[in-house]
Amino acid sequence: MWKAGMRWMLLILGSLIGAGYASGQEIWQFFGVESGLAIFLFTVMFSLSAYVVMKISYKVQSTHFLPVLEHLMGPLLAKIYDVLIVFYLFSTTTVMIAGGGVTLQMYKLPFWAGVALLCGVTVCLFFWDINGILSVNTVLIPILVAGLLYALFSFQTTHHHTWTIDLTRQYNWPASITFTSLNILSVVAILSSVGKDMKGLGEAKIASVASGLIFGVISFVYNETLVELAGSLSQYEIPLFAVLEGAPYPLFLCMTAVLCLAIYTTTVAGVFGLSSRLLAFVRLPRWMVVFLLLAAMVPFTSFGFSDLIAFLYPIYGLLNLYLLVCLLLYPILSKWKKYKIILKK
């Protein structure tokens, strides 16, 4: 149970810690000063929502997200969110690919060559389907998380910054709602595809709590670091490079590699969720579906990376509020339905 729970935890983290998050763009877009309470609330809501998704996915033995959506909000709204999730996965995976091209430019690789390289290794992984994804995540996600935390704590150690949380000045707490709603859509898309592979709800509890805690801790440390650098962030396309300013060149190269890993794992998770949905309509090998999807995404990467983040993410965060409410109310409504059935008997 613990081993399986850890595997799903790594799948969740792989879908979340991508270009927008690891680069700092996503955190700075939603949080900033007076956000300690917001990050705590996000951690709680995210863990609960992830568990509900996994519980429903296991219950209906789903292979893609439509059955989970129908169980959660009914057939009519499920069809609307079905289309929304497809557009979400398509656009956010495009953001990942664009971020990969920008990041690999640090290695003197042309933007389009970086995009082609990222797409190529993504397609290759899907020759092994979900087993390949889980195996790669087992290796890459621990490296990704450790590398990101090392860079952040190295900055804090060098600059001797003291964290202070004033509970009377936590006015940015509503950001926790939009940030959770933004990230929960990818969780619904990914975890809805693994219902048949789960053996029990114990796995869901381990995966949801562990991923929420790890995601919350990284978000808090990252946000505090960016708050300290607020005056200079406008000079950088990627805030992570502001954190690395003045760091030894080997560390800079290592963190650029970590950012590439984050982009890769999230790209893989995005096209996995999207291909799982499309396989309900076409009879093709998954790797072929992934290849066609990436070919359709590449032309849209010509838009600026930071422009895509700033435009798309707040919109998706607002659109997903209803989905988040459904997930948070699901445990209460489920118990109420059982209670009514008992009363009728």
Largest sheet: none
- What is the number of helical segments per DSSP (H or I, 4+ residues)? 15
- Portion of residues within helices: over 70%
What do we call the CATH topology? Hydantoin permease
Contiguous low-pLDDT stretches (5 residues minimum) are none
- The fraction of residues in strands falls at under 5%
Instruction: Please trace the helix and strand order, writing H or E for each element.
Output: HHHHHHHHHHHHHHH
How many β strands by DSSP? 0
State the separation between the terminal residues, measured CA to CA: 36 Å
Average of pLDDT = 82
Q: Any idea how many domains?
A: 1
CATH superfamily: Hydantoin permease
Shape: globular
Rounded Rg: 20 Å
- Structural class call reads mainly alpha
Organism: Bacillus atrophaeus (strain 1942)
Protein name: Integral membrane protein putative transporter
Transmembrane segments: 34-54, 80-103, 109-128, 135-153, 173-194, 206-223, 249-275, 287-305, 311-333
Keywords: Membrane, Transmembrane, Transmembrane helix
